[in-house]
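Please, structure for the following, as tokens.
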Amino acid sequence: MKFIGKITILFTLFFIGLNGISLVNAQDTLCPLSINGKCINPLITAVPFLRIVPDARAAALGDGGIGLSADPNAMHVNASKLAFAENKLAVAASYSPWLRSLGLTDVYLAYLSGYLKLDKVQTIGASLRYFSLGNITFTDDQGNSIRPGRPNEYELAVAYARALSSNLSVGITGKFIYSNLAAGLVVESTDIFAGTAFAADLSMTYKKKLKMGETKSELTIGGAITNIGSKISYTKSINKDYLPANLGIGANWEFSLDNFNSLSIICDLNKLLVPTPTNVDANNDGRPDYRDYSPISAIFKSFGDAPGGFAEEMREISISSGLEYWYDKQFALRAGYYYEDPTKGNRQFLTAGLGIKYNVFSLNFSYLVPTSNQRNPLDNTLRFTFIFDVNSFKTEELPPAE
């Protein structure tokens, strides 16, 4: 059975754009293709939509934001920041068109998130991520239409964040993941089901006020391990795929230039905590050994299993960097850059965006410009996020950070 027309283009570009192409063949040779003597061997996971940055603010900063000031979209990257949120209640809605450069109008990522401060140290948050892959037609091997379909995926998440002091906070997030790509079809006598999984995030944030001469600043450092959870499968096979577990470390250094102007410098480092693909099958069970690890074992092995050794492990780290300028906390300009090694997916792009805040409402925009020959589903796409902050319900603030 095969997909034709739009579904072929859609799934091909979706998985190329997020995970790169798996180029490991069935032999023991690990490097059928290389760049400058380095093997092309990207990391492969299921449900890559979990790693799509949903909000326009972070998207405008090269997909970075682990250490950014708290807003409802912290649910995606670092829920522990919610403990330092200024308002008691806030909600956000984000929309990202997908593959618009191909003329598709029914493929998109929608994200709804919010938080509520229970008191001055405790905050709860929730989010819903929905990815629509549009309307398609399923066909058989002869190209005959079977039925129409609308593949979709979603994630439900709830979080709890707690401030341990005026400088330090921690957070935990629970998730339910649902992925329906072709449920109800039968492929080569195999029934296809919707995939489901459970996962958790662990996060922390530390911030410190600093003074450089007459310039006041605040340094925020965050860390999060996200999508720690069960494997997922679309059949009853024992061959299940890893979730995109990820380790992210980020910093945000915000400078108060004067009473009206501020500038933030951000940088994030991210590494997928999944095994590097190899063709080693020591137990001769017909599948590579790297697929046999438990999710927790895979996390630990992901730091030292690359065939190319330490150098290849370092190439598995992606870098996000950006600048955010605010005028009077009402108007923001943003720019960023994202880099992924050519042997691990080759996503490289510039981003830009702006933000406008009026009273309790905020509106953020972002735009992506590719800088490599690797196609990105968000090429030349405008994304936006709307945020509603309930300032009238401010809670008692923590003492100032030292």
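Residues 2-393 form a domain with the Porin fold (CATH 2.40.160.40). The CA atoms of residues 180 and 194 lie 4 Å apart.
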